[in-house]
Amino acid sequence: xxxxxxxxxxxxxxSKGKLSKNEIDGVDITSLWKGDFKSEPRKSILYYYGKNNLxxxxxxxxxxxxxxxxxxxxxxxxxxxxxxxxxxxxVEKLExxxxxxxPGEQYNVIDYNQDKVKEIMLLAKQxxxxxxxxxxxxxxxSGTREIGKLE
Length: 151
What we know:
alpha+beta; four-stranded antiparallel sheet; 21% helix; globular
């Protein structure tokens, strides 16, 4: 499992570059690029969006989605290189998906996997304490810093 925020530390590792001492969200995923698919450099992903909204948390194959509004392109496409209209969507209650079996997030399996919900909610609680979450009214957390501030 990896995401775009992992590119910087991965490229730094490949080039033997040094990263800042400031905390970053990315991790080195070069082991995956080299074909070691049993390695797990990243165990979870926090899906923050907008100003500071925690919309989902993924741990392993499981993704817990929190209530939130979002804009979707799942409608008629545009033409001549112009994107189609976006439509407003709402997640009204907690949803849980097994991303290995259902990467398109079509089947909410929350009713059958309450143990996974509890496990992932612990990660969400830690994230909210450290970074905040405007979806639940927590503006900042202990690890929040001003945009552009390095310390």
